[in-house]
TrEMBL record:
This is Probable glycerol kinase. GO terms for cellular component: mitochondrion. Pathway: Polyol metabolism; glycerol degradation via glycerol kinase pathway; sn-glycerol 3-phosphate from glycerol: step 1/1. Its EC number is 2.7.1.30. It comes from Cinclus mexicanus. It holds the Pfam family FGGY_C. It comes from the Eukaryota. The gene is Gk_1. The keyword Transferase applies. Belongs to the FGGY kinase family. It catalyses: glycerol + ATP = sn-glycerol 3-phosphate + ADP + H(+).
């Protein structure tokens, strides 16, 4: 199980904004020149909150969490031939513990408070971007409930061609469509920043929030991979290779997923990417340090690896959260 406190995530954003603005003042940069704010976030991580109180109804279930393994098994029984790629041409994704729909299904099945909030029409679902944008634009006092196409494309509930929530998939997962956020492009004004309740000041009050991209799409954009065929690889907790396939969605026969790379404005075209997702990359370095005690610091790992001429054909596969691309096997282990 991997979960996080959504309020802690939100407070870290408040603090980051305030501290950054303080630093900018010290450097004689006028924060009145800040014209826009962008949001980027860990993808797939699922939050359900109460729109009347503004409080999360449960911890955020993080992307690499595996508690939904039995949920996936149960859902697969409803699919002819137990074919986990049954929705590939709509969503670009296989049925896996990784994506938001199964996390949301788990919450609805296991958290009484969330079931009740859905019945009372108080519940809102979102990935981390939605939770942040809603909170930053006013929360229970008029916050904007939206997401962008890149984050929506990671839920398993979104048709990546029509760019709309898919009623058939919502029915398959038994998820009420009214709790889903509005889907917007990655670059438009969603709303404006309101004063932070935590800090009376709210340095960026009134500044529009006008960019939103899931972290791996944001890295693709940040590395300026705007041409068909350009790719980036990111090594964080996991490792994600994204290749821009231009305005056409390309479907892999070899276990890669098809995802939305970006859509830079309401009337702008949608760009797609092929993605190879690996759940554990940087996290295995921490594991070598903290759990196995092989190194004192993360930096030492490189030196240790360089000192060895050969591993004599011995490999360790860090499948701590199952294997993602290309196998999509949640029961695999390290």
């Amino acid at each position: 199980w991997v979960e996080q406190d959504p309020k802690e995530i939100l407070n870290s954003v408040y603090e980051c904004v305030e501290k950054t603005c303080e630093k900018m003042k010290q450097l004689n940069i006028n924060i009145a020149n800040i014209r826009a704010i962008g949001v980027t976030n860990q993808r797939e991580t699922t939050v359900v909150w109460d729109k009347t109180t503004g409080e999360p109804l449960y911890n955020a279930i993080v992307w690499l969490d595996l508690r939904t393994q039995s949920t996936v098994e149960r859902l697969l029984k409803k699919v002819p031939g137990r074919n986990k790629t049954f929705s590939k041409f709509k969503t670009g994704l296989p049925l896996s513990t990784y994506f938001s729909a199964v996390k949301l299904r788990w919450l609805l099945d296991n958290v009484e408070e969330i079931r009740k909030a859905v019945e009372d029409q108080r519940a809102m679902f979102g990935t981390i971007d939605s939770w942040l944008i809603w909170s930053l634009t006013g929360g229970k006092n008029g916050g904007i409930h939206c997401t962008d196409v890149t984050n929506a494309s990671r839920t398993m509930l979104f048709n990546i061609h029509s760019l709309e929530w898919d009623p058939e998939l919502c029915k398959f997962f038994d998820i009420p469509m009214e709790i889903l956020p509005n889907v917007r492009s990655s670059s438009e004004i969603y709303g404006v920043m309101v004063c932070f309740p935590v800090f009376e000041s709210g340095a960026l009050t009134g500044v529009p929030i006008s960019g939103c991209l899931g972290d791996q799409s944001a890295a693709l954009v940040g590395q300026m991979c705007f041409q068909d065929g350009q790719a980036k690889n990111t090594y964080g907790t996991g490792c994600f290779l994204l290749c821009n396939t231009g305005q056409k969605s390309v479907f892999s026969e070899h276990g890669l997923i098809t995802t939305i790379a970006y859509k830079m404005g309401r009337d702008k075209p949608t760009f797609y990417a092929l993605e190879g997702s690996v759940a554990i990359a940087g996290a295995v370095v921490r594991w070598l340090r903290d759990n196995l005690g092989i190194a004192q610091t993360s930096q030492e790992v490189e030196k240790l690896a360089a000192d060895v001429g050969t591993s004599y054909g011995c490999y360790f596969v860090p499948a701590f959260s199952g294997l993602y691309a290309p196998y999509w096997e949640p029961s695999a282990r390290g």
